[in-house]
């Protein structure tokens, strides 16, 4: 019998100084969790809409990822956090998640935020459609980022590659309907795929906050408000197994 996966979601704002953000990792990453999730772009915030972030891009073995790895090792955990990664086009880096610690991976955001008046694709490059699933303490964890949440086919692809948990770091811009969309989509991805979803956003006022832990039947196990917060939960494997017996939609699908 597998043990529950102990998770922590750190809803904290990223600043514009990469060195300061790196320095905060040691104080923000809590002990006692198997998996710690920080928001999208935590290495350095996007800045004003349309800003050029290429000068803040790093390799995935650069200073930010190295500090994530160091802190993860110190805490005995796996940490997922967002950064801008240098790519083939120096002017358009990737929006990348790094996982470091007991599991190691990098996921480049597939769907860029060309929506609600923003044009992320003018400043960033999209990653290839390659599902990234890692094993953390015996649990299969899939990675996606922010706007990816609006594309159910990506979540289904992760589940088809074995994900039992989907992690969604985000910088979900605040605005009319945005919290409602966020909460609806996080729960929908959990329900339709019978998986746990860990959605960790940057806080208000610029972003929407409301980080969430949702179980495979859509029950909200923990939810933050608008401000800085840390959520903790235990993901029990038997809950997922029971959910898939109760709602065998993955087995029943025909497409």
From TrEMBL:
Limits of the CN hydrolase domain: 5-237
Domain of life: Bacteria
Xref: SUPFAM superfamilies: Carbon-nitrogen hydrolase
Alphabetically ordered keywords of this record: Hydrolase
GO MF annotations in UniProt: hydrolase activity
InterPro entries, alphabetized: C-N_Hydrolase, C-N_Hydrolase_sf, UPF0012_CS
Pfam families: CN_hydrolase
Homology family: Belongs to the carbon-nitrogen hydrolase superfamily. NIT1/NIT2 family.
Stated name of the protein: Carbon-nitrogen hydrolase family protein
